[in-house]
Design brief:
- By secondary structure, this protein is an alpha+beta fold.
- The protein has two domains: 151 residues, Creatinase/prolidase N-terminal domain (Creatine Amidinohydrolase, Chain A, domain 1, 3-Layer(aba) Sandwich); 277 residues, Creatinase/methionine aminopeptidase superfamily (Creatine Amidinohydrolase), CATH 3.90.230.10.
- Helix content is 35%, strand content 14%.
- It contains 14 helices and 15 strands.
- The strands form five sheets. Strands 4-3-2-1-5 form a five-stranded mixed sheet. The chain has a three-stranded antiparallel sheet with strand order 6-7-10, with helices on both faces.
- The longest helix has 26 residues.
């Protein structure tokens, strides 16, 4: 089935669920804004434009200032901004595979577009331009409606899965090239360029800036520099993805050269197996917070096995927070049009929030997983001075093998991340289909 057919089903489902949400929230219609360009202060350069994610959920049209008008039982209307402009090239939508699912009306100015939705009765607006929407009489306090739309976003349609597969395939090509560049002795900048070149894209096509870390920099979770003088790295961590029709892939891999300490290479092998065990635990009905707790238990086992912590059981290591010193972030998050996608803490479509047990307060996802959810699974072990330093004093200090920690700290850390679709029978690990 071609992508257009999957998109037709996707839009039919969007129309069905949105019609229900509008009835429940007592709105006659919904306007979704793509958003406008934002400019640097006192300059005519704009920031790179990204359409509002709920707009993208309906329509892959590129460019700013478009509006969607959605009314129950009617074909959605795309109010497209097509300015008369010789300064910039604007997207030609005439042969887009998705266009037949919309009634499209083109306008040369923003004012003409907004005039089409002025003073529509009982009409909700979601998007970045709330002030303007209010000035045109649209309703912008829509948290009850937004909760329902966010909930529906967490169940991926076949079209969305196809887009994710395509973004993953492209990203995997880049990851293979990045790995080769590392083992060839390349710098962080060399590796980043190899990643981009293999996918034949620009940085704009990435869902987030690549994280390319040699050696100790892997201990910085969102490291962004691209050093060019540091080469022949002993260890390497790359966190990078791609976007297709707005849908992101989010993949992390860690590698060690032969020159890396043997204990670190063994730790990396253990983490790879640990990550796959966690993936295989996923099924409908599983609490993601429970899976995160299991990750801490497994990581504590691994730390004890490699003598990084000693003289304590893995249960006590988790309870005392020792595993969190090495694994300070959440196990994963919802994935989709946003890299950290919406709906991760909801328990139902009305917006009720999943209660925290108190042990893990900052998880991005606390859902009870269900078929159609797309999540990342990304356990890690890091040697972070900011977290290790306070442990050198106090009652817990004797549990740490400080000599081994000092030996492995220049290696930075390890993270392995796959994008996993929850299915009725278990999982589909989309990442492993292209990057074993």
């Amino acid at each position: 089935m071609v992508l257009a057919a999957f998109f037709r089903q996707h839009i039919a489902q969007r129309q069905k669920t949105t019609d229900l949400a509008l009835r429940e929230c007592r709105y006659d219609a919904l306007v979704i804004g793509a958003g406008a360009l934002n400019y640097h202060t006192e300059d005519d350069r704009s920031y790179p434009f990204r359409s509002y994610h709920h707009f993208n959920h309906w329509c892959p049209a590129r460019g700013p200032n478009h509006l969607l008008l959605i009314r129950p039982g009617q074909k959605p209307t795309l109010l497209a901004h097509m300015p008369l402009d010789f300064w910039h090239e604007h997207a030609d939508l005439s042969d887009a595979f998705w266009l037949s699912e919309f009634e499209m009306k083109s306008f040369a100015t923003e004012d003409e577009i907004w005039a089409q939705v002025k003073s529509l009765p009982f009409t909700a607006y979601i998007g970045p331009d709330k002030n303007r929407a209010e000035s045109y009489g649209l309703k912008t306090e829509t948290s009850n409606l937004l909760a329902r739309l966010n909930w529906e976003r967490s169940f991926k349609s076949d079209y969305e899965i196809k887009c994710t597969v395509r973004s993953t395939r492209r990203a995997a090509t880049g990851h293979v090239a990045a790995r080769e560049a590392f083992f060839a002795g390349g710098s962080e900048l060399d590796i980043h360029h190899a990643y981009i070149r293999a996918m034949r894209c620009t940085d704009y096509h990435l869902p987030y800036e690549t994280i390319v870390c040699l050696n100790e920099k892997a201990s910085i979770l969102h490291y962004q520099r691209k050093r060019d003088k540091t080469r022949m790295g002993k260890t390497f961590l790359i966190d990078a993805g791609f976007q297709y029709k707005g849908y992101a892939s989010d993949i992390t891999r860690s590698y060690a050269a032969d020159e890396a300490p043997e204990e670190f290479r063994s730790l990396l092998s253990g983490m790879s197996k640990l990550q796959q065990r966690l993936c295989l635990l996923i099924k409908p009905g599983l609490s993601f917070e429970h899976l995160h707790a299991q990750a801490h238990s497994e990581i504590a086992h691994l730390l004890i096995e490699h003598d990084l912590i000693r003289g304590i059981s893995h249960e006590s290591a988790v309870e005392l927070g020792l595993s969190a010193v090495f694994f300070p972030h959440g196990l994963g998050h919802m994935l989709g049009l946003c890299v950290h996608d919406v709906g991760g803490t909801q328990t139902d479509r009305t917006g009720a929030v999943a209660p925290s047990t108190g042990r893990f307060k900052n998880l991005r996802t606390r859902r009870i997983l269900d078929a159609g959810n797309l999540i990342t699974v990304e356990p890690g072990i890091y040697f972070i001075d900011l977290l290790l330093g306070p442990q050198k004093v106090g009652a817990n200090a004797t549990y740490f093998n400080w000599a081994l920690i000092e030996q492995l700290a220049p290696c930075g850390g390890i993270r392995i991340e796959d994008d996993v679709l929850v299915t009725r029978s278990g999982i589909r690990n989309i990442t492993r289909e292209f990057l074993p």
